[in-house]
Amino acid sequence: MRDAHPKLQNQDAHLLYARTLEAQDRFKEAEEEYESLVGYYAGLEARTRYALLLLRRGEVERARNLFQEVVRAANARRAIVNEADREWLKVAKANL
Question: What is the pTM (predicted TM-score) of this model?
Answer without folding.
Answer: 0.88
